[in-house]
Amino acid sequence: MRTGHRKSAPEVTGGKVQKKNNWEVSPNYYDSPQVMPIIDRKRPGKGYRHILKKKDIYDFISILPDWPELSRGLNAVVLAPGDFSLYGYHVPGVVHVCAWAEDLWIECEPFYYERDQAILERLGVPCLPTNNNIYICRFNESTARAFQLLEILLHELGHHHDRITTRSQRRASRGEPYAEEYARRYQAQIWDDYRRRFELY
Predict the structure, then answer these.
(1) pLDDT digits (tens, 9 = 90+) for 8-46
(2) Percent over 90 (pLDDT), the chain
(3) Has residue 120 been placed in a domain?
């Protein structure tokens, strides 16, 4: 789970199976393995918008050098509705990147600013402290897209990698530190390729 500056992830309710008109249970990517990961885009919700398009996800995974291994057991990448409490989350087989706030700028408490300071500086995001001990991070569309791909998606893929490399392969047992380190290591590895593939201004 990749949180912004507030609470932990809510219960995942999107994994419920749907019924067809004949009332048979329909398989979906939460409960049925997929031959290839599905890229799904949900409605962003009021006050949010999707910065990422499906094409961005396809272009991004094309520069991940170990994608064939990483995609093992990955059923879907979901562009999920926005949530005040988090940037993204992972459930077994599915990673989610939440929609971004419509006005692009975000507020960030010191702990989270310090955690993300390296990538914010690398992307050139101006972050100004306020009198309330809060940072205002002035993203634009390009830097928000980069943050969602290089930080949030890689973090959630780190949880997935954690799960598929454990003995049981049932859950991500090494937690947030593993996902954070995974994202940081991958960012450095693909940074030049990212700059060639995506605009960053």
Answers:
(1) 344 444 555 444 444 444 458 877 777 788 899 999 999
(2) 56
(3) yes
Report pTM. 0.82
What is the CB neighbour count within 10 angstroms for residue 74? 24
What is each CA distance from 193 to 36, 118, 150, 156, in whole angstroms?
A: 23, 18, 12, 20
The total domain count for the chain is: 1
The upper half-sphere exposure of residue 192, i.e. CA atoms within 13 Å in the direction of its Cβ, equals: 2
Residue 69 in tokens: 């291994």
Range of 177's domain? 34-197
| Residue 27 within any structural domain of the chain | no
Does 20 reside within a domain?
A: no
